[in-house]
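User: These chains co-purify. Model them together.
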Amino acid sequence: MAKRRYKGLTLQFVSHREIARLDSVERIKKLLKIVLDNKVIILQGRLSAGEESRLIEDTMVMIGNVKGFKGVELAVITGDEEGSSVWDKFKSGLARALVGQQDAVTIIGPASIVKEMKKDPTKLELVMN
Amino acid sequence: MAIKILRDFTKRMFGMFFRQKEEISLGFYGPPNAGKTSLANKICKDWTGDEIGKVSKMAHETRTVQFKEEVEIKYKDKSLKFKLVDTPGIATKIDYEDFMKGGKKNRMKKKQAQTRAKEATQGIVEAIKWLDDVDAVIVVLDATENPYSQVNITILGNLVARDIPVLVVANKVDLRKADIKKVESAFPEYEVVGISAKYGKNMDEFYESVFRLAKKA
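Assistant: Joint model of the two components:
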């Protein structure tokens, strides 16, 4: 990844269906391949806790092996459940168990492009390099 | 012979279920510069007189997992033995150029900064691997920083998935910018204790929480 100036920003949408059939290793490989292509990923849903830590591990290994790669910025926005009723929480819990957490959005960007992701419960601010 | 086998089997089974852990492996996790080593040092100094590692204002000072075994902590009339496992700060990015910035005292040369960055990446991988070998975890956060960072959420998510009991520590409450309420509202399902590891503020409440945490381990 050579250092260069970016005139634009490419956002790549990855649907839940696109990664649903992949195993964890393939899933992370696919996402990191897009990041290495200097694109910011908007992923429908979220990775599991284990996959998120695996993503960090693989990112760390890549920093040492891919020239110019500094890592990733990562944020997950989930549906706000604060104030929702027990019945609503039960319904969303059941839906997650059946089809995965599709009401979340995961943003992953290369650290060379996205300097920081400032997250508050209701908003996400991307600070660009 | 049969009686001996039966007796040994019964003894093993009872030992498995009823033996109390002799030493609880207590991990210190969190983002870089939150004060994990400062807190581990404070505990070690309070109960053993030694320190576990070096601290500095520069991120990624701890780049390998550090241990202190047989740390006996006493609270009221109880005492528990811990193995403290201080881990490098977990991050999603590391840029060696960051180590070349800052004051003249801390600024590094390119080669030195690259080495530090490489060690830091290896330290993060090692820290994540250690999640399988701790009985309980203290997640140390900087109370002056935004607690909603994905690294914090990922660490806590992994601990929940592994069924490891957690105590969240909001460190640096001595600083004016510290906002313990924000940490509490970010993680309402966890016990949060506000402390200053540097000045030893609120350590009594912290040790009380550690004993509650140890009960769950």
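The two ends of chain A are 15 Å apart (CA to CA).
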